[in-house]
Design a protein that fits this description.
Length: 219
């Protein structure tokens, strides 16, 4: 689908979804400074041609302006004439869309996801087992376990983007960057939000469990 074939209604729907999610996550303090980025795909998906709305670079996400978002193509290039620049990590969004065909991707920085990604960074994944919120990923087995991938946080974004395809797990809709933040995605904005909230619960749970275990007196 060409960008010109995408209707005004489709564009407005994507922007409204981003506005609502940005406002909610900002109220939770998930965008310290100008960190984090959000995107919602618009129109049909083809691996070699797709488009999405993404947060503009360097914006304070606790406020709303007419220049908070722009539309980009499968290579992260603006689809329309604009002075805005897409978020620096847009290339990572491109790779996730290309490999999953998802409908939305949300990336936030929190204390818990930073600490957990650093703690398990050398291991390359965060293990989680028997945590109720794993069910948010449609994994219903009793005492289910998952491994959440952790990628190195290189300064050069293309180096990170190159690693994304090999790290993807179809059953785990998220990737951590070490000491940086979580990318979570879903078929639509609602599902991506659910997945992100589940990951954040798992990270907080895991962090506090590690603290309890460290505080347990030796026998």
């Amino acid at each position: 689908m060409n960008f010109s074939d995408i209707t005004l209604e489709q564009k407005q729907t994507a922007l409204q979804e981003l506005h609502q999610v940005k406002e909610l996550f900002a109220s939770r303090g998930w965008f310290p400074g100008t960190s984090g980025n959000l995107s919602v795909r618009v129109g049909d998906f083809q691996e070699d041609e797709f488009h999405f709305a993404v947060t503009a670079s360097g914006k304070d996400k606790s406020v709303h302006t007419p220049e908070d978002y722009l539309f980009v193509d499968q290579n992260g290039k603006p689809c329309e004439a604009t002075r805005l620049k897409p978020s620096a990590e847009t290339l990572i969004h491109c790779e996730i869309y290309r490999k999953t065909g998802c409908g939305a991707i949300f990336h936030v920085h929190t204390i818990d996801n930073n600490l957990i990604s650093e703690y398990y960074g050398k291991q390359g994944f965060v293990p989680a087992q028997g945590i109720e919120l794993i069910k948010a990923f449609n994994i219903w087995e009793e005492d289910a376990s998952i491994s959440i991938p952790v990628l190195p946080n290189y300064a050069e974004i293309p180096r990170i983007a190159e690693l994304v395809p090999g790290a993807l797990d179809v059953s785990v809709p998220g990737i951590l960057l070490r000491n940086h933040g979580i990318y979570a995605w879903g078929r639509n904005a609602f599902e991506a939000k659910r997945h992100l909230e589940a990951f954040e619960f798992i990270f907080e749970y895991t962090y506090k469990r590690l603290l309890l275990e460290a505080a347990r007196p030796l026998k």
